[in-house]
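#dry-run=false #mode=assembly
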Amino acid sequence: MQAEETSVTAPNAATRAEGRVGSPRFYLTNEFGLLVLILLFATIFGLATSGFLSKFNLFTLGRVAAINVMIGFSMMVVIVTGGLNLAVGAIGVCAAMMCGWLIEDIGIVWPVAIVGGLALGAVLGFINGFAVVRSGLHSFIITLASMSIFFGGMIFLTRAESFRELPPFFSAFGRLKIYGVVSPLLLVAIVVGLLLIVMYRYTALGREMLAAGAKPEAAALSGVRVDRIIIICHMLSGVLAGLTALLLVARNGAAIPSMAGQLGQDWLLPAFLGPVLGGTLLTGGRVSVLGTFLGAVLVTMLTNGLLLLQVGEFWVQACLGVLLLIAVLIDKARRTFLARRRIV
Amino acid sequence: MQSLWRADWFGPLVVTVVAIIFIAAFNPSFLSPLNIQVLLLAISVNMLIAFSQMIIIAIGQMNLSVGAIGGLAAISFAGMMEVWGLPGPVAAVLALLIGVVAGFFNGFFIAWTGISAFVITLASLSIFKGLNLAVTRAQPFYGVLESVKAFGATTFLGPLPWLLIPAAIAFVLTWYLLNRLPLGRHILAVGGNAHAAELSGISVPRTIMAAHAISGLLAALAGICLVARLQIGQPTIGDDWLILSFAAPVIGGAVLAGGHVSTVATVLGVAIVAIITQALVLFHIDPFLVQVVLGALILWAVGVNRWREVRVARSLKRI
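#status=ok
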């Protein structure tokens, strides 16, 4: 197995060796570390609690993990370009409410309504990307403003009312168990992850995204239309955020305006936990789809395990913050170690 | 005239005055003593929140945990009075200390690891908020002392709320810090160009830690004032500070890359946000639209700042 790492920053022989099983560097990759941690914690929780490895808990775990993975992906595709998208939560909720509105008030069949919701996600993502590119400002401040605008507009238009009369398909999809354990939501997340891997490794568009993130000037000189790429990344982020919210609708059985918290802020922590744990650089140019996936799974597992250990739900959030802190510290130490090994 | 036009506070001042005249012309009750009192109450707390973020913007970073620090200080303030029976001033000092320690925690990790402030403060946001919820179990503290409640609810000299006093002191001290004290100049220097600052003998890590500690102090002060104003220690205090904390400094012409902020213009930024929010209420416009207006204000302000930047760059080129 080869760790899914894609990098355009230093295409020399040394980095190419990184990530191959057997090479000592593989044991220092984020993905390997995450795998070890996942197995370790699964063993601990399995021994310490009775319910952790039960079929029902594994099913719930997969369902929650799928959402966290997707939130991570929707942030990751923008981080690749060196930007951020604080509005993922707001866009997601807008897309889900759009879908609910199309079904309940307009009476459109659900497959078309889903497409409509995702299209709104793409449009809102386009607005972000366009504003970032046109103004030349950092995406932090643009998406901070747009998260307020999108969420406020959505609350204004929906009067903060939920859409609860959705077709039974949604909740059935959320409750469906494949072989008694696997949730179809997790399958959706895996398929999206595979598509992203294919995009970043084998398509010109994916390579251009990485190039635009690593060194925008160099990419522009070699013929990449950096502005267009950044807009596309933001649109992709919007679509993924919309899809995430639709999965959440399937899980809850209703489209609720508060499902991502005030202004969609509740998504911010999972959105950064996955990519940062997985080794995606915040400065752009490097992406690890598998790392984001494993990072989100680890976070979900820890939350679930801590709850089963009856640590108290209020402590879990503090634990996740500490985890993020430890993760960046370990990553820092790993990088220093690698850099020293390469030089000496 | 040219220098007036270039000053950071000039644009926001014009907007403030025009907005006041415009709104007062349509709705004279805007200038009633009660309304002025409500307006000043909002301004005094929001000013502290804005300063807390402004100090960090000055150093070229961002602090996502402003609200979480404020919330933690607020519930500790109320909790120490209710559970331990401490007198108000002692509880306030201890809560401020918590804010300083929390800010120092941020600054220490940022300076020590060199990891972006965004990630560190996102992690600490979660830690502080988690501590807050773990202590309160999401239930408010009701045992706020009567003297504190009185401080938050009464006024002097007509419509001036007492809460304006801590905000005014913070304003004077922040202005003095950034414009007169070596530490303030160091903060701006590090924000402008950390490398150049280091070469000229400024200790960058120490400056970063000091800036974050001050930011924590101001956030804690805002939290304490909010407890006095709301009369209870709500665990949700601080949840909605993020947008606001960026809006006011940015309207005041702060450069997000660091090195340039204006204390006076930030206060005007706070005033603009408060006046517009108040106007939406007076004209019976949907309160849900406040978020949209806040977001639009940020976009408008960064747009204007950017335009000024481009203009300055062009005029420099001509010379």
